[in-house]
Design goal:
Layout (H helix, E strand, L loop, with lengths): L1 H17 L10 E5 L5 H9 L16 E7 L7 E3 L7 E2 L2 H13 L12 E7 L5 E5 L15 H12 L5 E7 L8 H9 L6 E6 L6 H8 L10 E3 L6 H9 L4 H14 L2 H4 L6 E2 L1 H42 L6 H22 L2 H23 L29 H15 L3 H23 L6 H29 L2 H4 L5 H33 L2 H15 L18 H28 L13 H40 L5 H8 L3 H39 L1
Parallel strand pairs: 1-6, 1-7, 2-5, 7-8, 8-9, 9-10
Antiparallel strand pairs: 2-6, 3-4, 3-5
Helix pairs in contact: 1-10, 1-22, 2-8, 10-22, 11-14, 11-20, 11-21, 12-13, 12-14, 12-20, 13-20, 14-15, 14-20, 15-20, 17-19, 17-20, 18-19
This protein binds guanosine-5'-diphosphate.
């Protein structure tokens, strides 16, 4: 028969994972008693070990949901805290310490907490039982205890002593039963005494006759009766048992037996009273099994209803779509790797070249501005010039060493600007930002943990490769620092390309002027300010002071804008001129390179970019494409524990809800299955019993 209780307790524990709803639970035995009534001693006598928190101050601040698991045929005795993940604790004094710490963690201001501590104890010497130990009732509030403590304990106990739970009401024999707080509480919720077991402790402290009359009390008759116990271990033994893990039950029973058998008249086998810890244990097992069996049907109905609700929700909200935390992670990871693969196919040498060339174009423009396009305009025009509009500019001498030096210096500045680092940074940044974009489009977007893991996976590989890549690139462009060998084809391409660069730069200048015009307040206003700035620049008059107050009737801010507009206007003029020059026949010929630094530097930049890209491809990109998916597997795959996977999946509130419905449904189905097979087992047992 006992296997039924074990299975029902198992079901009870699974149900606790489903939710807190009391209709969804199987009954348990709730232990109540006032402080010092001997409550702990009774529980420890049943378990066979000292394991409950002790101390002058009230230490039990949280309910302890105690599951006793009988393990016949095994010597091992141990406790487990399923919520703490400490594993099997074989030392009972360590269980005691843990319980004490958990209780002390409840802040004094809160008095007590209704969040139960779950503890299971497995041993060949314990019966299969489910007990809930509650804080002891207190009579008087201690001087350093909060006033509402008494009230709060009483409220907490009231929550647990509701039907269908069995109440184990502990009272001490040396206190009048009429004054027993435990019995008074139980009477309020169980007035007909149908689900209360009365335990009278400290039977050794009263006269046997008096003890006898307590146990046969008619004031508050209990259907399940009273049991008298002497559950204190004999004094010398108690210290001894504390140290070892030896069984306490035997010592207590021996002590108890010798007391009760010394008074055969009152407590002997002829007497109608029930005494002794082992009698109590048997009664508890029997009553629990009966009570659990009795509520099995109603619990199963309630579960059935819950299951129907969960099934409906699953269908309506989630279209019966299966999902597990692992499958969700695996799918998300696959999806991400897939989109990464697409990116890898689209991002190669040509794309890196374009990125790098764009960056170098900017550097070339800066160089040109600094070395050629500064004021006063250095005229690069060769002596014979067409078209006409350039004809009036002063001519430059193509043989002049001045122009040669200037171009050589500019080229050298370009090749020595630290291409290795620049190229590696540009490409690495671009990869990193593409990875961020991919995350943004993936289902990882709502998972901070995964986002970080992926970003770090990318940056760790890129950082690892950074120095060697930039060194390699720098080495391979070294020859260009000494000599640049250019072909006609390259020149032609440069001439073509730089026109686009100049046109874009011109458009940017004009756009910026337009913006300034708008912010200044229109074309006319801009013209006025510009006129003033130009006159000031030509030295027609001096703008006084530090200009901060402004001049000529214009505010300082307006003048600053005017100066900026003048700069942009001049730059645009130069660029227009240079565009004409680049387009002219002169610049079609590579021999005229000193007059066409724009074309020459552009062609050099292209050479630099092409060479850099060859090495970037080998040293950085291929490495990254190979390692990144592996790094992802490492950080988001095998490496994660089940709990981490679950935690990850539940970061997304939608997924969390979806998973929870499924998990709830699965648990309920599991429990229903178990109840079904239990009912069959019960039926068979009954048949066997009837057949006898
Ligand atoms: P709790 O506060 O209700 O948990 O009570 P305890 O189990 O800690 O017991 C309070 C005191 O009563 C302790 O000093 C126990 O040793 C003592 N005690 C418990 N049971 C008995 C008993 O059956 N007989 C005697 N004489 N003392 C007992």
């Amino acid at each position: 028969m006992m296997v039924l209780t074990k299975k029902m307790i198992e079901i009870r524990n699974i149900l606790q994972r489903v939710g807190q709803s009391s209709t969804l639970s199987l009954p348990s035995i709730v232990v109540i008693g006032s402080q010092s009534s001997g409550k702990s001693s009774v529980l420890e006598a049943i378990v066979g070990h000292e394991f409950l928190p002790k101390g002058a101050n009230m230490v039990t601040r949280r309910p302890i949901e105690l599951t006793l698991i009988n393990t016949p045929g095994s010597d091992a005795e141990y406790g487990e805290f399923p919520d703490l993940g400490l594993g099997k604790v074989t030392d009972f004094s360590s269980i005691q310490r843990t319980l004490t710490e958990l209780n002390q963690a409840v802040p004094a201001s809160q008095c007590v907490s209704d969040d139960p501590i779950r503890l299971s104890i497995s041993s060949p010497n314990v019966p299969d039982l489910s007990l809930i130990d509650l804080p002891g009732y207190i009579q008087v509030v201690g001087h350093n205890q909060p006033l509402e403590l008494k009230q709060k304990i009483s409220e907490l106990c009231d929550k647990y002593i509701q039907p269908p739970n069995v109440i184990l009401a502990i009272s001490a024999a040396d206190v009048d039963l009429a004054n027993s707080t435990a019995l008074r509480a139980s009477r309020r919720v169980d007035p007909r005494g149908e689900r209360t077991i009365g335990v009278v402790t400290k039977m050794d402290l009263v006269d046997p006759m008096r003890g006898y009359s307590i146990l046969t009390d008619k004031q508050y008759p209990l259907r399940l009766g009273y049991v008298g116990v002497v559950s204190r271990a004999p004094a010398p033994a108690s210290g001894l048992f504390k140290k070892g893990n030896a069984n306490l039950t035997t010592a207590i029973t021996k002590n108890e037996n010798s007391f009760f058998s010394a008074h055969p008249l009152e407590f002997g086998s002829e007497s109608e009273v029930a005494v002794g810890t082992s009698t109590l244990r048997k009664k508890l097992m029997h009553v629990l099994e009966q009570t659990m069996s009795a509520s099995l049907q109603s619990t199963s109905d309630a579960i059935q209803q819950e299951l129907e609700e969960a099934t409906y929700e699953f269908k309506v909200q989630y279209n019966d779509r299966p999902l597990s935390a692992e499958s969700y992670l695996a799918e998300s990871l696959d999806g991400f790797k897939h989109s990464f693969k697409q990116f890898a196919e689209e991002f190669g040498r040509p794309q890196m070249h374009e990125l790098l060339k764009n960056e170098l174009d900017q550097r070339v423009l800066d160089l040109l501005a600094a070395r050629y396009w500064n004021k006063p305009i250095l005229d690069l025009s060769p002596p014979i010039l067409e078209p006409d509009n350039l004809a009036d500019l002063p001519k430059a001498d193509p043989e002049s060493i001045f122009w040669h030096r200037r171009l050589d210096a500019s080229t050298s500045a370009l090749t020595k600007l630290g291409i290795g680092r620049l190229a590696t940074t540009v490409v690495a940044n671009s990869i990193q930002s593409r990875v961020d974009q991919l995350i943004g489009q993936s289902s990882f977007v709502s998972h901070p943990y995964a986002r970080q893991a992926i970003t770090e996976a990318a940056s760790s590989i890129l950082n690892d490769r950074f120095y060697s890549t930039s060194d390699q690139v720098e080495n391979c462009i070294k020859p260009f620092k000494f000599d640049i060998d250019m072909e006609e084809r390259e020149w032609a391409q440069g001439r073509e390309h730089v026109q686009g660069v100049l046109k874009r730069e011109l458009a940017a200048c004009e756009g910026a002027i337009k913006d300034l015009e708008t912010s200044i307040g229109g074309r006319r206003k801009l013209k006025e300010v510009l006129g003033f700035v130009d006159k000031a620049r030509k030295g027609e008059f001096v703008v006084e002071g530090d200009n901060s107050i402004g001049a000529g009737g214009f505010s300082a801010a307006l003048l600053a804008k005017g100066r900026e507009a003048a700069f942009l206007r001049d730059r645009a003029e130069i660029i227009k001129m240079r565009l004409l020059a680049v387009k002219s026949k002169q610049c079609a010929n590579m021999k005229n390179k000193y007059h066409c630094p724009e074309v020459f530097l552009d062609a050099v930049a292209t050479k630099l970019a092409s060479t850099a890209v060859l090495f970037l491809n080998v040293e950085l990109l291929s490495e990254f494409y190979y390692n990144f998916p592996r790094e992802l597997d490492l950080r988001l795959g095998r490496h994660l524990s089940d709990e981490e996977v679950e935690k990850f999946a539940k970061e997304d509130p939608k997924i969390k809800k979806h998973l929870e419905v499924i998990q709830r449904k699965e648990l309920l189905e599991l429990v229903l299955d178990k109840i079904e097979s239990l009912k069959q087992l019960e039926g068979r047992e009954r048949e066997k019993g009837g057949g006898k």
